[in-house]
TrEMBL record:
<dbReference type="InterPro" id="IPR031817">
    <property type="entry name" value="DotD"/>
</dbReference>
<dbReference type="Pfam" id="PF16816">
    <property type="entry name" value="DotD"/>
</dbReference>
<protein>
    <submittedName>
        <fullName>Putative TraH protein</fullName>
    </submittedName>
</protein>
């Protein structure tokens, strides 16, 4: 008697990937993932006025823009590269 054949990862992944593709197509056709967000981009509303961010990267321009949208200013310390 022959032992059952082991399924290879590619053989088990193919049906899953087919289902994902079908689900994405369905969501696209129903307009769930192909429409623009109606959220306002010119205003930010938060429960507090103070936001602290610890970031290793180039975020000064982004954070300055976000602060201006809230009518605030962004102050940074450290070396700007």
């Amino acid at each position: 008697e022959k032992p059952p054949a082991a399924l290879t990862p590619s053989a088990t992944a193919a049906p899953v990937l087919d289902r994902v593709a079908l689900q994405q197509e369905t969501l696209w056709m129903e307009g769930a993932i192909n429409t623009r967000s109606t959220l306002p981009t010119d205003a930010i509303h938060a429960q507090s006025d103070l936001v602290a961010v610890d970031w290793s990267g180039d975020a000064i321009e982004l954070l300055s823009h976000l602060a201006r949208q809230r009518g605030q200013t962004f102050a940074w310390t450290g070396v700007r590269l």
